[in-house]
Design brief:
The chain is an alpha/beta fold. The protein has eleven helices and eleven strands. 27% of the residues are buried. InterPro entries: DNA_methylase_N6_adenine_CS, SAM-dependent_MTases_sf.
């Protein structure tokens, strides 16, 4: 019956889909371990053929069949243990009966090895079989969605996927719980993420192209002092997203740091560090994570001329920093590209694309986020669970109070 079913050939989409559906039914209807093992082997061959043909959708289907087969295998192993039993193996074999050793060996139940199942597969299959059906299907759906979004090698370990998802959600839930608890305990919310666009002052003075013509700016030392005042508004594990002009990011700036020397005494010394790091470390971040680039042109206007002295600045940097453990890594379906292209002129001077709010809201998993130096209104609203502070924040201000 099983030998007549072939799910290996890589043919037209309709044919492949019908074989996939037939294989799913065969797995669900299987009543013996060897039936499931044969289907699992065919799924592995189907995956190999799909990889040769570079058919990613078919490869995902093959791995799904393998996972469904392993879950069914776990159910059958459990059922066999509860009925005829499975031998543990070893020589000589003995059970609790009074039969002779030769009779016991001759009539003993099969071992996992004799059924072609190693201990690792047996353990994984039985763990998968303990999942409630709805949980298994939800997890399988998550795996399929993430696999379709990836370009690299696909995982075949659904238990690992489930463990990572539970850990990710648990850490996000903990971050939100700690943030909520901070309001009850201190009256001020601590945030697991902050997004800010400081009003940088240019060093070369005020010209007709200067930031000062559009909004009030702050000196570098003022921004660092402000960042230091925000330390207590962040949880011990947090992410930070900071906009910085290219000319400012690596400009060296002398900043006071506390240094412990060999005798254990603490001294304050001035150290020159890149400006972006001086601000981030003042806020309590201890590691740089990555950088996003906003390109301020589009395909229709690729030659929009930016400002600049040595080079026309047609992009801007959004730096990402980490404090402690940060937040858990996002799902594959929550990961964004490092570059976003959108014309700046329609947005207005210094306003950043709404894309980045949506990106941060997604990769942080919906936890509370504080946006500082914010500019938002009905056209450019804040995401859910965000608070804001800034001269042009029109609704939810710091701590969620309505801005007067």
């Amino acid at each position: 019956m099983i030998g007549a079913l072939s799910i290996v050939e890589v043919g037209p989409a309709g044919t492949a889909l019908s074989r996939y559906d037939a294989a799913c039914r065969a797995i669900a209807e299987a009543v013996a371990v060897d039936e499931v093992m044969q289907l699992r082997d065919q799924a592995d061959m189907m995956r190999a053929a799909a990889r040769i043909a570079k058919n990613r959708n078919l490869e995902i289907q093959a791995i799904e069949l393998r996972m469904r087969g392993e879950r069914k295998l776990g159910e059958l192993i459990k059922a066999q243990k509860e009925t005829v039993g499975l031998a543990k193996g070893g020589t000589p074999y003995r059970d609790s009966s009074t039969r002779t050793q030769s009779e016991q060996v001759e009539n003993r139940p099969p071992t996992l090895e004799e059924a072609g199942i190693d201990r690792k597969l047996s353990s994984r299959a039985q763990k998968m079989a303990t999942m409630p059906p709805d949980e298994f299907e939800d997890l399988l759906g998550t795996w399929k969605e993430e696999s379709a979004a990836l370009d690299g090698r696909l995982t075949t370990d659904l238990l690992r996927v489930g463990a990572e998802e539970r850990q990710r959600q648990a850490r996000r839930d903990l971050a939100q719980t700690l943030s909520d608890a901070s309001v009850e305990m201190t009256g001020q919310r601590k945030y697991p993420a902050i997004y800010f666009d400081p009003p940088w002052k240019r060093k070369q003075g005020i010209t007709d192209r200067s930031y000062e013509n559009h909004y009030v700016t702050m000196t570098w030392d003022q921004i660092i002092a402000w960042a230091r005042s925000m330390r207590d508004r962040l949880l011990d594990d947090a992410w930070g997203f900071m906009w910085v002009p290219r000319a400012h990011a690596f400009a060296l700036h002398s900043t006071p740091y506390e240094v412990t020397i060999g005798d254990g005494t603490v001294h304050e010394v001035a150290i020159k560090t890149p400006l972006a790091w001086a601000v981030a470390s003042a806020m309590g971040f201890d590691a740089f994570s990555t950088c996003f680039v906003w390109t301020k042109t589009d395909e229709e206007q690729p030659d929009d001329v930016g400002t600049g002295i040595l080079v026309r600045d047609q992009d801007e940097l959004l730096l990402m920093f980490k404090k402690g453990r940060g937040l858990p890594k996002p799902r594959s379906t929550e990961i964004f590209g490092s570059n976003h292209r959108e014309r700046s002129k329609p947005l207005g001077h210094s306003r950043k694309p709404q894309h980045y709010r949506e990106m941060i809201a997604k990769i942080t998993g919906g936890v509370a986020v504080l946006e500082c130096f914010a500019r938002h209104d009905g056209r450019y609203p804040l995401p859910a669970n965000w608070d804001s502070w800034g001269n042009e924040a029109s609704d939810r201000s710091l701590d969620g109070a309505l801005r007067q």
